[in-house]
Specification:
- GO terms for molecular function: hydrolase activity; nucleotide binding.
- Belongs to the SIMIBI class G3E GTPase family. ZNG1 subfamily.
- Pfam families: cobW, CobW_C.
- Residues 253-274 have a biased composition (Basic and acidic residues).
- The chain has two domains: 5-240, 3-Layer(aba) Sandwich (Rossmann fold); 243-388, CobW-like, C-terminal domain (Hypothetical Protein Yjia, Chain: A,domain 2).
- 32% of the residues lie in helices and 22% in strands.
- The protein has 13 helices and 14 strands.
- The protein has helices at 5-9, 31-41, 59-67, 86-99, 115-124, 147-154, 171-180, 195-208, 235-240, 243-257, 275-279, 295-303, 360-368, and strands at residues 18-24, 47-51, 72-75, 104-108, 136-146, 184-188, 213-216, 265-266, 282-289, 309-316, 323-330, 333-341, 349-356, 386-388.
- The chain has a seven-stranded parallel sheet, with helices on both faces.
- A hairpin with a 6-residue loop joins strand 10 and strand 11 (323-330).
- Helix 2 packs parallel to helix 3 (59-67).
- It starts with a helix and ends with a strand.
- The protein binds guanosine-5'-triphosphate.
């Protein structure tokens, strides 16, 4: 290991706000393993760790404590940082900073936390702090991906068993959201995936998250400078970085240039297939229509999930309502429901699809068959909000 703090992590001392790295990822992805790895390899940076685990007993804090006895570890058990414990997260971070000196804060989030609200807590503060927390600076959002789980879930055709988590937050959804909101993505557990599949996984992940630095790891072994003191985090960039958002933006630009004409955009429409995507059969497209869906028929199509989709997300124009119906699909987990009204905007369906060897025409035909005809539409209030679990 390098011996100086700056060499290892690029962290300077002084009165600057304490940098923070947040480690996210689904249950069992390897977050604790990564944090332990950091604590045992970083020499000159004093790292404090806040661990948030969903169980009654904070197994992670126990594990970390046992292996690193003199480290500042705080246990935020019995809740999830992203929803109930935002105040606690900040309170504990501040308390920790008062009672001990450290150079760097690492937050290990629970396997069901959404990274975005955690980031927001540091950037905007909470009701209690009435503003941003000046003592800390969010430096890096890291996601640890269980590459084996990802491959099983989305590519091999076999579904991994759902751990005992919130039925409102299926694994696939947590997995995809943690990929979509991060600066550094660690493809962990690559030792468990056939070599021939690792490139394919990376290509799919790159499609979901074009912005992040992606590294392959086994047991979280990584140069600490990859995730500490990177200075990569920027809230605006992170919020815009999901692959589906980027694809939708580029689609809208093309549509503007074409004066709003209805058209289809596939990968090679305005940015050619990368060789990797073509080789690995990863494709994406945007489905756009200005005719409305019939609510019931749309729900039927959404229930039929035999189409190699890893991620689909966007807006649906549905007959019989002024509401925009948002649709979000991660693997086989789908939710759809009102997310606001169209207002001045021309109602238009815009759905981004990312998947493996998807048959774009077949998917478009299926969706077209759900468009409303001249008869009275089904009442959308009877259909939405809709939640389909794997
Ligand atoms: N084969 C293999 N196993 C790994 C790797 N990384 C971690 N593990 C194992 O995976 C299991 C889960 O690892 P943890 O580090 O506890 O995962 P976590 O994300 O902290 O899990 P939760 O706290 O439950 O969310 C442990 O048994 C680890 O030893 C890896 O790269 N390869």
């Amino acid at each position: 290991m390098a011996s100086s703090t700056t060499e290892q992590t690029g962290i300077e001392g002084g009165d600057q706000p304490i940098p923070v790295t947040v480690v996210s990822g689904v249950l069992g992805a390897g977050k604790t393993t990564l944090v332990n790895q950091l604590l045992s390899t970083v020499e000159d940076t004093r790292i404090a760790v806040i661990v948030n685990d969903m169980g009654q007993i904070n197994i992670d804090a126990d594990l970390i404590e046992r292996e690193n006895e003199d480290t500042g570890i705080v246990d935020l058990s019995n809740g999830c940082i992203c929803c109930r414990l935002q105040d606690d997260l900040i309170t504990e971070s501040l308390r920790l900073a008062e009672i001990r000196e450290f150079d760097y804060l690492v937050v290990e989030s629970s396997g069901i936390s959404e990274p975005l609200p955690i980031a927001r807590t540091f950037i905007e503060g909470t009701d209690k702090t009435e503003g941003p927390v000046e003592q800390f600076r969010l430096d890096t959002m890291v996601t640890v991906l269980d590459s084996y789980g990802f491959w099983k879930e989305f590519d091999s055709g076999a579904s991994i068993p759902e751990p005992d988590t919130d039925p409102e937050r299926p694994l696939a959804e947590v997995l995809i959201e943690s990929i979509e909101f991060c600066d550094v993505l660690l493809l962990n557990k690559i030792d468990m995936v056939p070599d021939s599949e690792v490139d394919r996984i990376e290509t799919a992940v790159r499609k979901l998250q074009p912005h992040a630095r992606i590294e392959r790891t086994t047991y979280g072994k990584i140069d600490p400078a990859t995730i500490l003191g990177t200075g990569r985090f920027d809230f605006k960039t992170a919020r815009r970085s999901a692959g589906w958002k980027q694809q939708l933006r580029s689609h809208r630009k093309v549509a503007e240039t074409n004066h709003g004409a209805e058209h289809k955009q596939t990968d090679d429409h305005d940015h050619p297939h990368t060789d990797a995507a073509a080789t690995h059969g990863i494709n994406s497209f945007v489905y756009t229509r200005t005719d409305p869906f019939d609510a019931e028929r749309l729900a039927e199509v959404l229930h039929d999930r035999t189409d190699n989709v890893i991620r689909a997300k966007g807006l649906c124009y549905v007959a019989g309502t002024d509401d925009v119906i948002g649709m979000s699909r991660a693997g086989d987990a789908i939710q759809a429901g009102p997310i606001g009204s169209w207002g001045e905007q021309t109602p238009t369906t815009e759905l981004v699809f990312i998947g493996t060897t998807m048959d774009e025409d077949a998917i478009a035909d299926q969706l077209d068959a759900a468009l409303a005809d001249s008869g009275p539409p089904t009442d959308p209030d009877e259909i939405f909000p809709l939640r389909i679990n794997p």
